[in-house]
Amino acid sequence: MTTEFHWPVRVYYEDTDAGGVVYHANYLRFMERARTEWLRSLGHEQDVLRAEGVIFIVRSAALEYIQPARFNDLLDVSVNIREYRGASVAIKQTIKNEKTGETLCEGNIRIACIDAETLRPRPIPKHLFSELSHVG
């Protein structure tokens, strides 16, 4: 079963720049929130994973800005898994304006699994890898 996860985000005044549009770095924050909520929806809290010795970090991020988001827009941020490896996951994320359906930003994010103590790469735990490979 493969599904796409969606998370709503409202644009607050603090998210915008002097021009009244969402500051470019905040799209990464919106995507991070959606990935965290996606993991939470699967029953995994990041603080619990950390206590178990597992941390997920962003290894790479490539974003394409297509249309600006503005103050008070309601956005839909999606999480769609593209590829699994032993210690990383490639994720396609899209931010759309919920009202118009227009795509505003697309991101290709690679998340790496690291050991909480050594901060070195480690395999994604088998139980988690199995779960993640059936959703996304």
From TrEMBL:
Family: Belongs to the 4-hydroxybenzoyl-CoA thioesterase family.
Species this chain originates from: Methylohalomonas lacus
Gene3D superfamilies: Hotdog Thioesterase
Protein's name according to its UniProt entry: Acyl-CoA thioester hydrolase
PROSITE patterns: 4HBCOA_THIOESTERASE
EC number(s) given by UniProt: 3.1.2.-
Keyword vocabulary terms for this entry: Hydrolase
Superkingdom of the source species: Bacteria
GO molecular function terms attached to this record: fatty acyl-CoA hydrolase activity
KW Hydrolase (keyword) present: yes
